[in-house]
Structures are given as structure tokens and as C-alpha cells.
Design brief:
Blueprint (H helix, E strand, L loop, with lengths): L2 E3 H8 L3 H9 L12 E3 H11 L14 H22 L11
Antiparallel strand pairs: 1-2
Length: 98
């Protein structure tokens, strides 16, 4: 069994030693108290396994009917027009004495 110090673990995870300390004190990463604090490689691997996320790609969208496609285009056009309308700066006309 191999033990690592906080700076070594921080280097492996490419983060700061204060992040490792927060993980330890938060109970997310097991450690052996002392000077220096030691973290076993198996505990580090267990932590990494618990943080790993397997994300499945979303399913492809169902094909739209021509009517649904037209409605979506109209909706998108309205949203786009409203965004553009609000982004255009208004020109203030100065009142000149006549």
C-alpha cells in the first residue's frame, strides 16, 4: 500500500492543497492524521471513482412534422426579433427650439 502526502495528491488531481484539506475535513477523502497527513492511494482511487460520472448522450430528437417544423421556426423568429429589438439602442432626439 502506497501513501501520499497532501501536496502529492494535489499534484495528481491538479488542484490546491487547500482543496485537498477541504475534501479531508468534509469527510469525502479518507486520511491518516499526523505530520504529514497521509492519504492512501486506494482511498484516493475510491474518491475518484465516486466522483466519476458516466453521462449518456441524449437520445436523438424525434423527427418533426412539417407543421411542427413551421411552428418552431415562427416561434424562433419571434424570439430572435424580440431580442434584437431590445438590443438596438434608441436614438434620442434632442428638442431644438424652433
Amino acid at each position: 500500500m502506497k501513501f501520499l502526502t497532501e501536496p502529492e495528491v494535489a499534484e495528481i488531481l491538479r488542484c490546491s492543497t487547500s482543496k485537498i484539506k477541504r475534501l479531508r475535513l468534509g469527510g469525502k477523502l479518507a486520511y491518516i492524521p499526523g505530520r504529514p497527513v497521509l492519504i492512501s492511494e486506494t482511498d484516493l482511487n475510491g474518491y475518484l471513482a465516486s466522483q466519476k460520472r458516466n453521462v449518456e448522450p441524449p437520445p436523438p430528437p424525434e423527427p418533426m412534422t412539417p407543421e411542427e417544423e413551421h411552428a418552431a421556426m415562427v416561434k424562433n423568429a419571434r424570439e430572435w426579433a424580440l431580442k434584437i429589438k431590445h438590443k438596438i439602442p434608441r436614438i434620442k432626439r434632442s428638442k431644438t427650439p424652433t
